[in-house]
Structure to design on (158 residues):
């Protein structure tokens, strides 16, 4: 009797598992129907409208030092803006002019600025926007690493 139950259970399992097997013809029929719908449906062309990006004003929370600064004697101060990147500060004119010349050879147009205490600031770039100045300072630090890691932003006081 045990053998009959075992045989009956095995037959039931085979039939149960065999009946769940999907038929390839069912998949093929569904695929054909989907393909017909795809071909029959009209393709709508999407109209692409270009929208000018809205740019928000660039701001920066970078720290600055504020000084009254003027171009050093013999310097053209027309390129001096509100925010400047300072890479060196010297009391000795020879050192300041040597760094200025080095940066000119690198392709920059540095300006020597002098504060009220007589310190010479070697300014490599100058901007009206603080965010632009901070970006330039970071680029100089990255380009000349490990030199000029103490580069800082000067906010010109008028």
């Amino acid at each position: 009797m045990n053998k009959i139950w075992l045989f009956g259970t095995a037959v039931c399992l085979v039939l149960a598992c065999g009946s769940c097997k999907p038929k390839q013809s069912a998949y093929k029929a569904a695929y054909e129907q989907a393909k017909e719908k795809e071909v029959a449906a009209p393709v709508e062309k999407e109209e692409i409208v270009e929208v000018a990006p809205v740019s928000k004003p660039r701001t920066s929370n970078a720290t600055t030092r504020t000084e009254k600064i003027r171009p050093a004697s013999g310097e053209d101060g027309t390129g001096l803006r509100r925010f400047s990147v300072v890479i060196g500060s010297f009391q000795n004119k020879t050192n300041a002019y040597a760094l200025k010349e080095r940066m000119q050879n690198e392709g920059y147009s540095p300006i020597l600025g002098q504060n009220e205490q007589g310190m010479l600031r070697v300014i490599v770039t100058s901007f009206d926007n603080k965010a632009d100045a901070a970006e330039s300072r970071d680029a100089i630090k990255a380009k000349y690493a490990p030199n000029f890691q103490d580069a800082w932003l000067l906010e010109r006081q008028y």
